[in-house]
Amino acid sequence: MPTYGNIFLKQDENGAFTTARRAPLGFTDGRNEAWLRDLLAGHPDLLPIEEVDPSFAPLVPLCTELQTEAGPVDAAFISPTGRLTLVECKLWRNPEARRKVIAQILDYARAVSRWSYADLQRQVASATGLKGNVPFEAARELQPDLDEAAFVDATARALREGRFLLLIAGDGIREGLSGMAELVTRNAALGFSFGLVEVALYEFGEQGLVVQPRVVAKTETIERTFVHVQSGDSGSLRDISDEGETERGGESVAVANERAWWEPLARISFDDPEQESPLYRHRNHIRVPLPYPGIWITAFRSMGEGGCGVFLTGKKSEIPQVLDALNEEREQILGELPHGTNERQQHDPDRPGFASYARLSEFATDDDCRNWLAQQLNHFVNAFRPRLKAMIR
């Protein structure tokens, strides 16, 4: 992690320097999250966009408090090529706040990814009080020769494909940066570009304020491949991932019901304050990302087999070596996991794994089943997360 020295101001002809005083956000009257939001919205050049992902530059301010189904986005920007940047401003006080803001901005992005261009236009107009094609007019101020039809089509495509840049801006992000960078890396698989920007403030007394933004963590852009499936007179867009095809069009009732069943588990909190929430992955299961690349905890429910459970798994290229290392501490790990945890390894049945199972008939209600899964997930996170972090080091 880079370190930053003090800022100096040359004050007089004799060569004397004045050292700036660090002015943390939240400790000075009026300089809070709302102040930072308005500062960045009014001066988008402060955000080091070229360093995070230049394909989203230049930033054109759209609005503050952009309303979504998941809540209001602090500040929204767009580029003349139709790519959205969503910025959440946060003061960092504890690990729980850091974990929650990651989940929060991801929820915003998921909500916006379901919008059409008309939805974006309507919500920006509502936030600004302006009429007409506000996103296009804002972008055209920066690029006068911008073609409206091309801009609308490009923006609609970016919305549909989830091509967003998510930025979290705040003060003191370097405190606990390893945990924050881990959260960013784990969520790269969602397909969004992601960055953490520390905004440092320095005061020179009556002579003014220096604002120094720094990129402290970022992900690489994860490209997603889409194909258009035509059936008769209708067509649908499908997102092809490493787990097969997932339809991005309208959901069936069964799929919607399954998503609703897992939704409470996607919001659970863990004993570990830096562990992010589970991710719903379709096909009756969720994943809990872990700090070792390509390794995660899966919770599943199979109505056909009448069972549910939690197990440690990962990519075929990573899970064998991880299990070999963990099995050296097998007895100690099993002592930390719930009673009844047994062996399972989906890629190599001969290699002992870690899993906990139950029959659906054991639970009187869906809530009982979800509560059991949540408890198992928490135990698995407590047992494996610190060990995998140590393996990374």
Would you give an account of this structure?
This protein is 33% helix and 28% strand. By secondary structure, the protein is an alpha+beta fold. It has 2 domains: 8-218, no CATH class; 253-392, Yope Regulator, Chain: A (2-Layer Sandwich), CATH 3.30.1460. Strands 3, 4, 5, 6, 7, 8 and 9 form a 7-stranded mixed sheet that branches. Strands 13-14-15-16-17 form a 5-stranded antiparallel sheet, covered by helices on one side. It starts with 7 loop residues before the first strand and ends with a helix.
* Shape category: globular
Segments where pLDDT lies below 50 for 5+ residues? 221-249
Estimated radius of gyration: 24 Å
Which structural class best describes the helix and strand composition?
A: alpha+beta
In total, the number of domains comes to: 2
State the distance separating the first and last CA atoms.
14 Å
Distinct helical segment count: 11
- In percent, how helical is the residue content? 25-40%
Tally of DSSP β-strands: 17
| Major sheet summary line | 7 strands, mixed
Strand content: 25-35%
Question: H/E element string?
Answer: EEEHHEEEHHHHEHEEEEEHEEEEHHEH
Mean pLDDT: 80
Protein name: DUF4268 domain-containing protein
